[in-house]
Amino acid sequence: MTLEEYFGLIALGLPAGFLLLGLFSGQEKAKARQSLTNWCLAFGGLSVLLGGIAAISHAKLVATRGILGALFIGLPAFPAGLMLLLLGGSTKTDTEGENDGEA
Length: 103
Description:
The protein is mainly α. It is 68% helix and 0% strand. It has helices at 3-11, 13-23, 30-56, 65-87. Helix 2 (13-23) packs across helix 4 (65-87) and helix 3 packs across helix 4 (65-87). The relative contact order is 0.22. It comes from Aromatoleum petrolei. This is Transmembrane protein. The chain crosses the membrane at residues 6-24, 36-56, 62-87. Keywords: Membrane, Transmembrane, Transmembrane helix.
């Protein structure tokens, strides 16, 4: 795996993040969006770390199902999770404080 392939797979996550953000937008889907964001950041972060180590050390990886899953699903999942986190907004709403100033 070269560094160009590594960053190319990571770049695939940007459009995927916008797509997921569109699918999980709105307050009614906030809990599902938060769960998806956590999964993308956890699995993707681990895949980015392991893939980066393999790319920098020029390791010859054997194409097993685990390696393919980590590279082709995990690498794009990390930037997709970042897009969901940064552009998705807060999942917590302040419903109790809306009427505090009114008598």
